[in-house]
Specification:
The complex is a heterodimer of chains A (634) and B (420). With 634 residues, chain A is of the alpha+beta class. Chain A has 21 helices and 21 strands. Chain A folds into 2 domains: 45-52 and 66-144 and 183-228, Penicillin-binding protein 2a (Domain 2); 235-633, DD-peptidase/beta-lactamase superfamily (Beta-lactamase), CATH 3.40.710.10. In chain A, strands 2, 3, 4, 5, 10, 16 and 17 form a 7-stranded mixed beta sheet that branches. A 5-stranded antiparallel beta sheet of chain A has the order 12-11-21-20-19. In chain A, strands 1-8-9 form a 3-stranded antiparallel beta sheet, with no helix packed on it. In chain A, helix 9 (235-244) packs antiparallel against helix 19 and helix 12 packs across helix 14 (361-372). Chain B is an all-alpha fold and 420 residues long. A two-stranded antiparallel ribbon of chain B has the order 1-2. The chains are: A alpha+beta (634), B mainly alpha (420). The structure holds zinc ion (ZN).
């Protein structure tokens, strides 16, 4: 045994505790900042909320900013006797309300601060601030509200709300009182927009006045403002499209084909995003969510519509690329399955280009059969599989990966779906021919329709459609936006189909879409709607060479594609390409058109996943498919 | 050999008094820490202070039981108690529910016990038993290995329970080994290993390894006279490198994110007020705001509820610092120092090696707890959640410290009967 060890051990004990005493002497006695107790000061932890990032359109027009408001906070333990009458007058509440709120705050905690009155506007704050020194335990916390000067793009922008306990449990970053994006890009770019919260520790004297920061702000953390975002949207085009769609239900997406940038995306009916802000949000949300037109439902990305005749483009491209049809291919002007037959309307004899121009149903049923039942695939199942892969390469039947939340994949059944219904090997093209003309078990969102159009405009590829162009002035790299997605259709296969689309506008069903000298390529469509009037559709891009815009317009319950959808798309193209409108009469007719008054209420059925039952679809297609758009409407 | 007549005969009343005073300070501090006007009765058992009173009552009964039991029992059954505790620890590993990421509790009915707390006195007993065997010589390598095994086995299981703080406590037995003849180099090496550990957390490991290599090279150049020096230097360098590597491994791989964060904050790598640094900052502010004489009983404003978390358990010292000021902190530290000195004094008056070793174990454990708990409250050590002996809220810790201390008091009261 080491005789000194007992002294060494006792020495170590003594030295350590002596160091602690010195440290305590420094912290408790020497350190000036801790003289709080002498003045009976209290320390207050003030959350420093960061300003949420601003949002601009592609040209720099401000679309979302923050407006200052103030939360009145209370720490019940620090509240001393006060003139309640005066206080209630300043806070604009009744005495009963004051008592109720104080009790609620006490119940939450006597020592923690809780919100006494939310979102006090700046004018009222100015009055309150002057008298606040009289009310110990009360202080104001600067907060912000989102404001939307353009009053448009509600679905795309989304909205924010306060976090709840469930969210806090899920993500430890958040704490009570924080805002979080709940939908739209407010949600998908939450991390970029929210910034970083800070905390200030301030000393407050007996007169409820802040006496500066504690320990010179040594323990403070500064909030960092959120990043500003520049959208790909064109605010003017967006607002214009929304005006055209007023009193109509449907969805629109417009894409710049060369980049995948979304120029406009909307769901109608829409709402003024300013109503989803602040104290009124809950009430307005409740109103909107019971609205029979489903204004909250983002049709542009979530509604499954049968694409109707617009789908003939993708169908034709696939067949051309597989050398199943060529520019000179023609078919007998009928398509008969058992007792049913697909009828058409009178038009001159046609080949492929004309079939698009005249939107010939029997022709495309035949094309579909030639493809699916083609001997080179062995079985119809294999044929359908190849056909489906073509369609999927246009971004259909899967999520495209847009940088907004709640995108749905659409509906494009796998062969196994039909195996289940008919049995393996017991179905062929004639069983499912309606797919060839965009009916049947197809569900495509307006965004996907616009993307197909962008693929055609680009002659074979697309970039993932996206809505955020730049973050903090730097190109958006949070998503993979530079990857070129090639369709399975080779560039040379597009010519004949694009020729047909040009004819549709020049001499076909969409002549209403012409303006100026711009060469527009498009295709109308009418999607059958068992619940009311048909849905009106138009897809198109312009100009033909070096296209700048690809649009898909879907107007529910409006009847003919040429009457509503094509003019809307055309006016949008004209505004975007030329910045003027040369057809005020057309514009007036569209803007004033009220289709909602005939909207089948209540309980309007919009096809949303899960897929429609086979029975109902069959009933639809059992009736002869008559393309009403071909009746001399234009 | 005389016969012992009363259990209170030869009892060291000074130690018992210090014990009672500390427990009383604990109780009123817990009352102050969680005090609110709605539950102002200090006897309200729905509140922590009411419960603590029950724990204190239990402690007194346990103390009496410990005193009644024949002193020879602790010697005779030291290994058995140790073995049972090890089984208990392993059981806790599998039976417990997850409390804040730590598998450290066993529930028996309404009681929640923390076996890690009770493993401390069991280990002290086993180590005392082993080192007091006549044939044992600390110089023998075999003795060193077995002693370290006795200490590291429970520590390792507790580490598996994710209770890093309690596991570290077992490191304090190094004082016991040192007192029993282990070279003082062990203490020095231990100190430098701890220092290296902290440096390894702060400095990039590649740079640190280069520095070690450079130092070793220089030392070899300077002291190349004897071959033994060179070998020693090389061994030290390799050992240091091993510490650095293992630290970086533990830090990157083995530590839970919250533990990592706590270390980062202490080292100033990260200053997230709402995160791990929050505890330290709040407790410093609370303690500092106490000034010289404190704000007075129940007058603390910073140590209520939200400002300092885990107020009645790991951060109870804040309440004392805020309400009683520097004077209060000073007295408390003196009380601990007094208790430690008294235990060391008791240790040195023993004829029985068993009691002496055990006493050093008791002093080491209490010292380590006090050092770490107050050290973290005043921002000198990382936030490691271990209780302040006799003061922090909690039955397991209070009872285990009571058993730890009263076994010593019992053994001490028996000292005059021991001939060995
Ligand atoms: Zn036809």
């Amino acid at each position: 045994m080491n005789p000194n060890s007992r002294i060494v051990i006792a020495g170590i004990f003594t030295v350590v505790l002596l160091i602690y005493l010195i440290r305590l002497f420094y912290v408790q006695v020497l350190n000036e900042q801790y003289k709080l107790s002498a003045n009976n000061n209290v320390i207050r932890y003030v959350t420093d909320y960061p300003a949420r990032g601003l949002i601009y359109d592609r040209k720099g027009e401000l679309m979302v900013f923050n407006e200052a408001v103030y939360d009145l906070m209370v720490i019940p333990r620090q509240v001393k006797e006060l003139d309640t009458t005066e206080f209630c007058r300043l806070a604009d509440i009744s005495k009963e309300e004051f008592i109720r709120r104080m009790q609620k705050a006490k119940k939450f905690s006597r020592f923690k601060s809780s919100i006494f009155e939310k979102q006090i506007p700046p004018e009222q704050y100015a009055l309150l601030q002057e008298k606040l020194y009289k009310f110990n335990g009360f202080y104001v916390l600067p907060r912000t509200l989102r404001k939307y000067p353009t009053k448009s793009a509600a679905h795309a922008l989304g909205y924010i709300g306060e976090v709840d306990e469930k969210l806090i449990a899920k993500d430890p970053y958040y704490q009570m009182g924080d805002y979080i994006g709940i939908s739209g890009i407010e949600q998908s770019y939450e991390k970029e927009l929210r910034g970083k919260r800070g905390v200030r520790i301030v000393m407050v004297d007996v007169h409820n006045r802040e006496k500066g920061s504690f320990e010179d702000g040594k323990y403070d953390s500064v909030s960092v403002a959120g990043e500003d975002i520049m959208l790909t949207l064109d605010a003017k085009l967006q607002a214009y499209a929304e005006t055209l769609m007023q009193n109509k239900a449907g969805g629109i997406a417009a894409i710049e084909p060369q980049t995948g940038e979304i120029l406009a995306i909307l769901s109608s009916p829409t709402y003024d995003p300013n109503i989803m802000v602040g104290k009124a949000r809950n009430k307005n949300y409740a109103l909107l969510s019971t609205d029979p037109y489903k204004s909250l439902f983002n049709r542009a990305m979530m509604a499954y519509y049968p694409p109707g005749s617009t789908f003939k483009l993708a169908s034709a491209l696939s067949a051309v690329n597989e050398h199943i049809v060529g520019p000179g291919t023609s078919y007998p002007h009928s398509f008969v399955v058992g007792s049913k037959s697909v009828k058409c309307h009178p038009h001159p004899p046609i080949a492929l280009e004309g079939s698009i121009q005249y939107s010939c149903n029997p022709y495309f049923c035949n094309v579909f059969r030639s493809f699916v039942d083609n001997k080179k695939y062995g079985t119809s199942e294999n044929g359908y599989r190849v056909w489906r892969e073509y369609i999927m390469s246009f971004g259909v039947g899967k999520k495209i990966g847009v940088d907004m939340p709640h995108e749905l994949p659409g509906l494009l059944p796998a062969p196994e779906f039909y195996d289940k219904i008919y049995g393996k090997g017991r179905w062929k093209a004639s069983t499912i021919y309606s797919l060839g003309i965009g009916q049947g078990e197809l569900g495509i969102t307006p965004l996907q329709m616009a993307n197909i159009t962008a693929v055609i405009a680009n002659r074979g590829y697309y970039y993932t459609p996206h809505i955020v162009k730049a973050i903090s002035g730097k190109p958006n790299t949070t998503r993979n936006l530079s990857e070129k997605h090639s369709s399975k259709v080779a560039p040379e296969s597009f010519t004949v189909v694009i020729d047909g689309m040009q004819k549709v506008v020049e001499a076909g069903t969409a002549r209403v879409a012409r303006f100026g000298n711009t060469v527009i390529c498009g295709k109308t469509g009418t999607a059958q709607n068992p619940h009311g009037k048909d849905h009106s559709l138009f897809v198109g891009f312009a100009p033909r060479e070096n296209p700048k815009i690809a649009v898909a317009v879907m107007v529910e319950n409006s009847g003919f594609g040429a009457t509503w959808a094509a003019p809307i798309a055309s006016l949008m193209m004209e505004l975007y390409l030329t910045d003027t409108i040369t057809r005020p009469d057309l514009e007036k007719r569209i803007m004033e058109g009220d289709l909602l008054k005939d909207y089948p209420l209540p309980g309007t059925k919009i096809k949303i996943a899960p897929p429609a039952k086979r029975d109902s679809v069959w009933q639809e297609t059992e009736q002869p498919v008559v393309l009403t758009e071909n009746k001399k409407q234009n | 050999m005389r016969k012992q007549t009363s259990i209170f005969q030869n009892i060291d009343w000074l130690t018992v008094s210090l014990y009672l005073v500390l427990m009383f300070i604990g109780w009123i501090s817990i009352y102050a820490a969680v005090y609110n006007e709605e539950h102002s009765s200090i006897l309200d058992i729905s509140q922590n202070y009411g419960k603590q009173l029950l724990w204190i009552g239990g402690s007194l009964m346990i103390a009496i039981v410990v005193l009644i039991i024949d002193a020879r029992f602790y010697d005779a059954f030291a290994y058995l108690i140790y073995g049972l505790m090890i089984l208990f620890l392993i059981a806790a590993l599998f039976l417990s529910r997850d409390v804040k990421g730590a598998h450290a509790w066993i529930e028996i009915g309404a009681f929640k016990l923390q076996p890690a707390e009770f493993a401390k006195f069991a280990t002290a007993l086993a180590l005392a038993k082993y080192l007091s065997l006549l044939e044992i010589k600390i110089e023998k390598i075999q003795t060193k290995i077995i002693s370290s095994l006795i200490v590291t086995l429970p520590a390792a299981i507790i580490l598996l329970q994710n209770d890093t703080g309690s596991a570290l406590v077992f490191g304090s037995f190094i004082f016991v080994l040192y007192r029993e003849g282990l070279s003082q180099n062990v203490l020095i090496i231990g100190f430098f290993a701890a220092l290296l550990f902290v440096i390894a957390l702060m400095v990039d490991k590649i740079i640190l390894l280069q520095i070690i290599a450079a130092l070793a090279a220089v030392s070899v150049l300077l002291m190349r006279k004897t071959r033994k020096n060179i070998v020693t230097i090389m061994l030290l360098a390799v050992a240091s490198a091993a510490v650095v590597m293992s630290v970086s491994y533990v830090y990157e791989k083995a530590l839970q994110p919250h533990q990592k964060q706590r270390i980062d904050v202490l080292l100033g790598k990260q200053t997230d007020l709402k995160g791990a640094g929050y505890n330290v900052n709040q407790s410093l502010i609370a303690i500092g705001s106490g000034g010289i004489s404190g704000k007075g009983f129940l007058q603390g404003t910073q140590t209520k509820f939200d400002f300092v978390p885990e107020q009645s358990t790991d951060f109870i010292f804040c309440t004392i610092g805020e309400e009683w000021g520097f004077i209060g902190s000073f007295i408390l530290i003196l009380l601990y120092l007094g208790l430690l000195y008294r235990i060391l004094f008791i240790a040195e008056r023993q004829k029985s090696a068993f009691t002496r070793v055990y006493a050093y174990g008791v002093a080491s454990i209490i010292f380590f707890h006090v050092m770490v708990n107050i050290g973290m409250a005043i921002g000198l050590l990382p936030v490691i959640g271990i209780p302040l002996p006799f003061i922090s809220y909690g039955g397991s810790s209070l009872w285990s410290f009571t058993i730890l201390l009263f076994i010593l008091i019992r053994l001490d009261s028996y000292r005059t009967f021991v001939l060995r």
